[in-house]
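So, read this over?
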Amino acid sequence: MHQIERGIYYEDSFLGVTLGGLVFSHGTIMLDSPLRPEDARIWRSSLLNQRGGANRLLVNLDAHPDRTLGDRALDSTIVTQERTAQIFRNRPTIFKGQSMESGAVWETYSDAIGMRWAIPDITFTDQMTFYWGGPQIILEHHPGPAPGSTWVIIPDARVIFVGDTVVKDQPPFLAQADIPEWIEALELLQKEYADYVIVSGRGGLVPAETVHAQREMLETIHNRLEKLAQTNAPAEATEELIPDFMPQVRISGERQTMFYNRLRFGLYHYFSRRYRSAAPVEETHIEEEED
């Protein structure tokens, strides 16, 4: 667990996403969940050892299974943006995801199948503010990478957790994205939060150069897809674009297939949804059936 400021932590060693922890005299606010229940117990214990107040909240920065499947193991009141909560309401009780080679981390964890979802308890639309015996904590809706994407902003500490708005050394998830909105969010991040410590939900601390590179990559993807759409190409043609984008991320050998699949899956579904009038779906990265 890494400390950014007093009471503000992040953890990047668990399977899933980079977690955040805000520990103050009124209690602890956890940002996202580790995938494995055993990791959730370790994470909760680590935060408890920081001796904050007795209250506990869990904030999901969007609805992706990598950051939400482990919610139940944290045994906490859950807060999400309303559009994220709507996705939860449309899910069955038990996760029965079929591996679709979407490049998600949960696909590497065989015990993910059969896990039970935890339903959000509290929702917000645009913004929610907490005062938990420390600095002001602001939850803000910033769609782009996902419909309910949320930032957690601590102005007094100049720290911001941005979820999948910026990802480090890996390609972005595109299947549920709105790329023009995403680019707008990155422009805001560069303009209004240039002097903040930025914590990515996939990669931990990120410098301004990473934010800039993320924006450039998305602008390139958007332009290439716009041109492809003008040729009346099928969605399958998006796979031809992948070699142009893979060199833009630092990819180790064991993750190369995962990241290729992430781009292939994301480009195909984004193109189908935005340019080919396919009916939008809330979660194309998983298939689930009622229990």
User: Anything to note?
Assistant: The CA atoms of residues 212 and 248 lie 12 Å apart.
